[in-house]
Amino acid sequence: xxxxxxxxxCAHKTLRLxxxxxxxxxxxxxxAPSKWSDTATYFFFxxxxxxxxxxxxxVTGSAxxxxxxxxxxxxxxxxxxxxxxxRIDAMKQEIQQLENKSKFxxxxxx
Length: 110
Description:
Number of strands: 0
Shape: elongated
């Protein structure tokens, strides 16, 4: 009965055999920089930096604001009261918009 090896052992042996039988081609001339690769590098690194920097700034800024607000109970109460009033005002404006006829309804009503 033949001995069965796990697949990673067979893959390793196959790769080793391929490396022994075939020389690795020289591709150094294809690795030279070009204007397209430079452009792509600068673009992707700058976009990645913008998103990473923005997210890190957002998280650290939120944490600092949270610490500042929770440190002073009077400020926390004042901010919560102001936010409730803002929500009440926004809901009142939405109610007025829903109760009033839209311009579309005014055009087709008699």
